[in-house]
Design a protein that fits this description.
There is one protein chain. Helix content is 25%, strand content 33%. It has 131 residues and is of the alpha+beta class.
Length: 131
């Protein structure tokens, strides 16, 4: 599953919160544009690792995390949760793959269309496991 999108874009990291957490600019950028791709945004919130874009999804919790990817000074990482092909709810196994892939497509289209990002790439399955 495509869940971790890495790219370089200093303009998406230009500002940070008072506690040094980056990712708000890209999180809000995605949140503003995801409705055009059929996703309803519940909210954008700060986390200790970056910023979270929560989405409405009845079958299972669905969200995007955005933050600074430390491998590069201008690195950005957006990751989709859930990152597994199935989740369990009330003893049921629910497939996540199709909805997550739809979100992955939307995120990539938005990032590419921004004109701000370079070196855009999805992590491989092996990289996803390593984190």
């Amino acid at each position: 599953m495509r869940t971790n999108l890495e790219f370089r874009a200093a303009t998406f990291l230009a500002e940070q919160s008072d506690d040094g957490v980056q990712g708000e600019i890209i999180a809000r950028y995605l949140a503003d544009r995801l409705p055009d791709h059929g996703f309803t945004v519940d909210g954008v919130s700060a986390e200790d690792w970056g910023w979270r874009v929560s989405l409405q999804n009845a079958a299972f919790p669905l969200w995007i995390g955005c933050g600074h990817y430390q491998e590069f000074p201008d690195g950005v990482l957006c990751f989709i949760e859930p990152s597994r092909p199935f989740v369990r709810r009330w003893f049921k196994k629910i497939a996540t793959g199709e909805r997550v892939e739809d979100l992955a497509k939307a995120v990539e289209v938005i990032v590419r269309a921004s004109g701000r990002a370079t070196d855009i790439r999805w992590w491989t399955e092996e990289e996803n496991v390593r984190g």
